[in-house]
Amino acid sequence: MSRRKPEEPGTVFNNWKIIRYSHAIEKRFYTVECTECGKQKTIRIDYIKKIPHKHRVKKPKPVIDNSNKILNHTIITGKVFGHLTVERLESIRFTETNRKYFYYICRCECGNKKIMATNNLGRKNINCGCLNKKYGSPRIHGDSDSDEHLTWRRMVEMCYNQLGSHYQYYGKKGITVDRRWLGEAGYVNFLEDMGRKPQFRSCLRRRNRKLGFSKENCYWSHWKAGRRKKDHEWLNGQENRSIK
User: Fold this and answer.
1) Confidence class of residue 81 from pLDDT cuts 50, 70 and 90?
2) Which of 21, 85, 131, 202 sits 20 to 30 Å CA-CA off 173?
């Protein structure tokens, strides 16, 4: 079997000029250079002889002079959203994922100014916060970040949330929470009856394990006592400690 004779460097086919052959497999692949643009490429000799190099010219993008658009975003100056009227663009902010957010300076009907993002302007009855002061804020107690509120929330969850991990120890066995400690004012009544934690790691415990959670059956105690007795009566308000 006779081997194919390699092409000599400098030979020109169409607009390809052979520089050298790159692979020794039957002398098929060569490194070539375009005689017009100088681009180098490694291709087979069959394509060099048949197909010339096509020069792709990128068409310039048309320049659109539209002062009402910035970065494909339509300026909403002068529009009214709820009680807010958009005055001007304040800034364009980017997140870590390179997502753009447009912030506008808005004027409320009461006269106050507030910086709002465009994704928040579509809310119903949007305002600067003056309506919450006028008609009352939806916050009831303002103590949702405390350890006592976390203890109360876990207590209700373990007794009534069937998907909870501790429901089998409480709600499934018929353990309930006093009606005074349930509902919108449940936490306020719970805090009024039990008070604040006496210590940082105090936990909620029941005196009688067969009865539910109520003012007469609950008290604050140190969490180590519950570990010694190995029961499931403990409710600790710390996020980093699981309920046993």
Assistant:
1) confident
2) 202
Exposure class string for 100-117: b at 16+ Cβ within 10 A, else e: eebebbbebeeeeeeebe
Residue 80 has pLDDT above 50, yes or no: yes
Give the sign of the dihedral formed by CA 182, CA 198, CA 210, CA 229.
positive
DSSP string spanning 179-217? GGGSSTTHHHHHHHHH-S-SSTTEEEEESSTTS-B-TTT
Cα–Cα distance, 14 to 152 (Å, whole number): 83
Residue type, 2: S
Do 169 and 232 touch, CB atoms closer than 8 A?
Answer: yes
Which one, of 182, 236, 183, lies nearest residue 214 by Cα? 182
Q: Is the separation of the CB atoms in 172 and 178 below 8 Å?
A: no
d(CA 21, CA 208) in angstroms, rounded, equals 91
User: What are the φ/ψ torsions at residue 43 (nearest 5 degrees)?
Assistant: -140, 170
3-state secondary structure of 74: strand
Q: How many CA atoms lie within 13 A of 114 on its CB side?
A: 19
Whether residue 230 has pLDDT greater than 70 = no
Count CB neighbours of 52 within 10 A. Answer: 15
160 secondary structure, DSSP code:
H
Question: Angle at which helices 186-194 and 147-160 pack, to 10 degrees?
Answer: 120
